[in-house]
C-alpha cells in the first residue's frame, strides 16, 4: 500500500489513492470502526477505470490513522466530518463525488449539508437519514446487539479472539443472497489487525456522539443522490434506506435483494457500475 498521511490539526489520517489524479475525485467514506480496507482494492480499481481519482482512508481509531484513548476518544462524529474537508484540501480537490457506507453515509450527509460546494454527488450505501424527523424506523437486530454485548468480556490483547469477534460481526451482517465469504473476510480482518498498533481503541466509534443539531438535514440536501441498500440489512434495516431515498429530493433507490450490511464480492463490479453511471453525467476535469 502506498500510504499518504493527511493532517487535520493534530489528527493524522492514512489515505490511499487509485487512478489518475487529473480525473474528478471520488472519496470513499467507510462506516464505524472500519478502516479503508473495507473498501476492497478491486472495488477502488473498478471505480478508477470508470474515470475517477479514487481516495480511500482510515478513519480516526482505525488502521494507520491516529488513535485516541480507549473508551473516551474525545471527538465526535461531527469532528470526523471535518476530516473529509482536510483530505480534499490535502489532495487539492475543490470537490468530489462522495460515497459513504453506514456511518460513512451519515458523515457524507454532514459534509453535503455544511459544505455543499465541496460535494458533486452523493452515493449512500446501507446508511440512514441525517436528522431523521419522521416516524419510527426499525431498530438494529437483536442478534447483533447480543453479540456486541460480549465486547465487555473480550480480551483485547488476544489477537485471535479479537479476529474471531470481528468475523462473527461480519457473519451477522451478511444477507442470504450469497454464501458467506469466510476465508476472504478472515484474510481481510487479519490484514487489518496487522496494520494497527494494538486493539484497545478498535471500537471507540461505538462511544461517539453527534453534537450539532442536524434535525431534518437529509431533506435539505439538493445534490444528486443515489441510495444503495440491502433488503436484508440487519444493522440499518431497508426501511431506513427507503426513508433516506424518499426524504432527499430527487434521490434514487437501488435495492440489493437479499443483501445485508455488506459489500458482497460478487456485487463489487455491479455496484461500481451503478456509482459510475450516477456520477458519470457530471464528469469534469479537476481544476
TrEMBL record:
Q: Which Pfam families match?
A: Abhydrolase_1
Name its GO BP terms in alphabetical order: glycerolipid catabolic process
Q: Recall the GO molecular function terms of this protein's record.
A: triacylglycerol lipase activity
Matching InterPro entries, A to Z? AB_hydrolase (IPR050471), AB_hydrolase_1 (IPR000073), AB_hydrolase_fold (IPR029058)
Domain AB hydrolase-1 residues, every copy: 24-262
What keywords appear on the UniProt entry? Hydrolase
Record's protein name: Putative hydrolase
Taxonomic lineage is: Bacteria, Pseudomonadati, Pseudomonadota, Alphaproteobacteria, Rhodobacterales
Amino acid at each position: 500500500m502506498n500510504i499518504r498521511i493527511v493532517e487535520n490539526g493534530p489528527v493524522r489520517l492514512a489515505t490511499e489513492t487509485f487512478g489518475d489524479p487529473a480525473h474528478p475525485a471520488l472519496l470513499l467514506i467507510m462506516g464505524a470502526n472500519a478502516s479503508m480496507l473495507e473498501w476492497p482494492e478491486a472495488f477502488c480499481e473498478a471505480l478508477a477505470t470508470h474515470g475517477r481519482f479514487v481516495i480511500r482512508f482510515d478513519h480516526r481509531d482505525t488502521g494507520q490513522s491516529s488513535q485516541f484513548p480507549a473508551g473516551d476518544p474525545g471527538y465526535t462524529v461531527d469532528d470526523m466530518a471535518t476530516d473529509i474537508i482536510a483530505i480534499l484540501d490535502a489532495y487539492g480537490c475543490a470537490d468530489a463525488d462522495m460515497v459513504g457506507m453506514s456511518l460513512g453515509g451519515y458523515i457524507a450527509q454532514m459534509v453535503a449539508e455544511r459544505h455543499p460546494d465541496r460535494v458533486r454527488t452523493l452515493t449512500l450505501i446501507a446508511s440512514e437519514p441525517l436528522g431523521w424527523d419522521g416516524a419510527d424506523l426499525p431498530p438494529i437486530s437483536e442478534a447483533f446487539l447480543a453479540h456486541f454485548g460480549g465486547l465487555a468480556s473480550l480480551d483485547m490483547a488476544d489477537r485471535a479472539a479479537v479476529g474471531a469477534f470481528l468475523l462473527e460481526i461480519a457473519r451477522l451482517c451478511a444477507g442470504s443472497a450469497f454464501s458467506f465469504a469466510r476465508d476472504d473476510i478472515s484474510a481481510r480482518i487479519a490484514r487489518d489487525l496487522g496494520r494497527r498498533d494494538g486493539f484497545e481503541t478498535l471500537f471507540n466509534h461505538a462511544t461517539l456522539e453527534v453534537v450539532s443539531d442536524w434535525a431534518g438535514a437529509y431533506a435539505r440536501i439538493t445534490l444528486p443522490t443515489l441510495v444503495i441498500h440491502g433488503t436484508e440489512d440487519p444493522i440499518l434495516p431497508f426501511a431506513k434506506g427507503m426513508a433516506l431515498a424518499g426524504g432527499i429530493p430527487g434521490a434514487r433507490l437501488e435495492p440489493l435483494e437479499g443483501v445485508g450490511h455488506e459489500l458482497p464480492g460478487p456485487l463489487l463490479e455491479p455496484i461500481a457500475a451503478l456509482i459510475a453511471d450516477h456520477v458519470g453525467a457530471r464528469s469534469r476535469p479537476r481544476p
